[in-house]
Amino acid sequence: MRIVNGQRLPWWRNFSSSLLDFIYPPSCELCSTAISNGRYLCENCVNALPRIKAPFCDHCGEMFEGHIESNFICPNCSKLDYAFSFARPVLLSSDHARTIIHDFKYRRSIHLARDLATILCEAFEDPRLQLAREQKWTLVPVPLYWKRKQHRHFNQSQEIAKHVAQMLGLPLCDALTRLRATPTQTHLSRKQRLLNLKGAIQISRRGEAYFRENPSGGVILIDDVFTTGSTVQECAKTLRKNLCENIVVVTVMRG
Ligand SMILES: [Zn+2]
Ligand SMILES: [Zn+2]
């Protein structure tokens, strides 16, 4: 019997994954080194990905060079009013980090979800997230419009959040839903992105029922990348208006 993430897999899963491993021996997505522990990124490559380290902005995680002793907020955030307490990304934007996330999302490399979740869990070493862990706040993935999910076959944030829930023993709820497709946001300013998203995110039926039965101390919004923060801002506004006051954001990378 093969045990993965503490769960016993049925015999046929054991057989099929062993067979697949035999036909296509797993190798690191970045350096092609053979690996065998159910991962798709080798330890050397994961360790080499640049992390966000202090000093960084207390609100958005933007890292700064130099020596800053006290807590600080970057010039960009000092002009903004977020509906969440802070965002804590783990990785700096780098060629390798962008490649992994791009492959995960656009090349349907769903098998990378667990490795990305392992990286995301490093955020919980931040003392500001200790309370959320102790009080078992609910993980809520950023939703994807159903048509986009159908095209991509999965919601990247949901897949990461599922693994994080298992790894940290936190509850998970798909509490949000996206009502309409929002055109690609890559080339839009933050203001345009916010307009683009206005009213696009609502509480799902599942979310309403879940929070009615399990009043949560807070929500940990999960996404792959934090760029301008406009998507998580819209999610946090919706959550704050309807379900819960305490919201933090955790992402794999700072875009
Ligand atoms: Zn590697
Ligand atoms: Zn900032």
Task: Characterise the protein shown here.
There is one protein chain. This protein has one domain (74-254): Rossmann fold (3-Layer(aba) Sandwich), CATH 3.40.50. The longest helix has 13 residues, at 11-23. Helix 8 (190-197) packs across helix 10. A four-stranded parallel beta sheet has the order 3-8-7-4. Helices cover 37% and strands 14% of the residues. A hairpin with a 2-residue loop joins strand 1 (3-4) and strand 2 (7-8). The chain has 255 residues and is an alpha/beta fold. It is built from ten helices and eight strands.
Features:
Rossmann fold, alpha/beta, 255 residues, two-stranded antiparallel ribbon, four-stranded parallel sheet
Largest sheet: 4 strands, parallel
In the CATH hierarchy, what is the architecture at level 2? 3-Layer(aba) Sandwich
**CATH fold field value:** Rossmann fold
Catalogue the ligands.
Answer: zinc ion
Total individual domains: 1
Please tally the helical runs, counting DSSP H or I stretches of 4 or more residues. Answer: 10
Overall shape: it is globular
Strand order of the largest sheet: 3-8-7-4
Topology overview:
Elements: E1 3-4, E2 7-8, H1 11-23, H2 43-48, E3 87-91, H3 95-106, H4 113-121, H5 130-134, E4 138-141, H6 146-152, H7 156-168, E5 176-178, H8 190-197, E6 201-203, H9 205-213, E7 219-226, H10 230-242, E8 247-254
Parallel strand pairs: 3-8, 4-7, 7-8
Antiparallel strand pairs: 1-2, 5-6
This protein binds zinc ion (ZN) (2 copies).
